[in-house]
């Protein structure tokens, strides 16, 4: 019997947690590699609970930490995959979700030590007051997180997906794989520009473009690649942002729901997870590839 496992970066909290839980709930995935940035205790607590909640399915959830802009953190992902979910032991990598992200210095810490108010393009904040040179540190960080890390994780995952496909072919089974990048409003030409998202968007647009290249190149192998763009989704990141504006997470979400979301509802992480399950399954989702899918209650229309 085929045992599928998934990789979910940033998979122990917020949207990533919802994705991990949905994949396990689906019954198709028996294992998940979950990455976290700093909080190992919280990640391990989540993994233990997830295994307990899915004990009847003999689920296996393993965690690995580190800032994914570093090669060492990404090495750790695949060392864990090969140790705990090897093809020789009957495991097949069936889904990869690059969800990990942050507002540098606001929602989490980072190895580059970036803190403070996010920089903006064109307002002079990128120019150093002392030497007059442009500061690329924020842009560089986000391009490493959403560009370099996404490509590295995809490339190494594809090697393992191909190995799984070969084993499937030997056994007369059709292989289906899925790669998904989690983006944000305003990072492609189909969305209006999102004010204040200059720096993260400079990295996520790389992920959005490369995902389409992966989609066309991997289609003959039965591997799809899409980007999912959540709208206002309940997670602790909103509390961090709201505090910077003298508000609370709940109050900020309520304001956004009433003023910006036509459907007048806040998405839950599980809603995003349901879409990932659909894209990574054997049903109609297998025909969807090279897309940037908005799951935002109409936010993109406002």
Report the principal-axis shape. globular
Fraction in beta strands: 15-25%
Number of helices: 8
Oligomer: single chain
Structure in a nutshell:
The chain has 302 residues and is α/β, with parallel strands linked by helices. The protein has helices spanning 14-25, 40-53, 71-84, 137-170, 198-218, 237-244, 249-260, 269-279; strands spanning 3-9, 29-36, 60-65, 91-98, 177-182, 223-230, 292-295. The protein contains eight helices and seven strands; from the N terminus they run βαβαβαβαβαβαααβ.
Structure commentary:
- With 302 residues, the chain is α/β, with parallel strands linked by helices.
- It is 42% helix and 16% strand.
- It has eight helices and seven strands; from the N terminus they run βαβαβαβαβαβαααβ.
- It has helices spanning 14-25, 40-53, 71-84, 137-170, 198-218, 237-244, 249-260, 269-279, and strands spanning 3-9, 29-36, 60-65, 91-98, 177-182, 223-230, 292-295.
- It has a seven-stranded parallel sheet, with helices on both faces.
- α2 (40-53) links the parallel β2 and β3.
- α1 (14-25) crosses α8 (269-279), α4 (137-170) packs parallel to α5 and α6 (237-244) packs across α7 (249-260).
- The longest helix is centred in the middle third of the chain and has 34 residues, at 137-170.
- It starts with a strand and ends in a 7-residue tail after the last strand.
- The relative contact order is 0.14.
- The model has no long low-confidence stretch (mean pLDDT 91).
């Amino acid at each position: 019997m085929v045992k599928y496992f998934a990789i979910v970066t940033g998979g122990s909290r917020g949207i990533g947690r919802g994705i991990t839980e949905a994949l396990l709930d689906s019954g198709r995935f028996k294992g998940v590699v979950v990455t976290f940035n700093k909080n190992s205790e919280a990640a391990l607590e989540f993994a233990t609970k997830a295994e307990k909640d899915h004990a009847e399915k003999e689920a296996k959830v393993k965690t690995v930490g580190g800032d994914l802009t570093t090669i060492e953190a990404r090495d750790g992902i695949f060392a864990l995959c090969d140790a705990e979910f090897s093809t020789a032991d009957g495991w097949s990598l069936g889904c990869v979700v690059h969800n990990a992200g942050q507002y540098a210095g606001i929602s989490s810490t980072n190895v580059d030590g970036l803190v403070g108010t996010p920089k903006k393009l064109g307002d002079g904040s990128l120019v150093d007051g002392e030497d007059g040179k442009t500061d690329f540190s924020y842009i560089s960080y986000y391009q490493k997180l959403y560009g370099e890390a996404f490509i590295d994780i995809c490339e190494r995952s594809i090697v393992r997906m191909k190995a799984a496909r070969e084993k499937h072919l030997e056994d007369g089974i059709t292989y289906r794989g899925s790669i998904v990048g989690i983006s944000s409003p305003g990072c492609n030409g189909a969305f209006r520009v999102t004010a204040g998202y200059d720096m993260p968007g400079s990295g996520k647009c790389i992920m959005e473009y490369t995902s389409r290249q992966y989609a066309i190149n991997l289609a003959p192998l039965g591997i799809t690649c899409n980007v999912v763009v959540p709208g206002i989704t309940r997670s602790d990141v909103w509390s961090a942002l709201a505090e910077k504006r003298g508000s609370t997470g709940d109050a900020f979400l309520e304001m956004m729901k009433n003023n910006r979301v036509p459907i007048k509802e806040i998405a839950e992480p599980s809603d995003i997870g349901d879409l990932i399950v659909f894209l990574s399954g054997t049903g109609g989702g297998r025909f969807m590839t090279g897309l940037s899918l908005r799951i935002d209650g109409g936010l993109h229309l406002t």
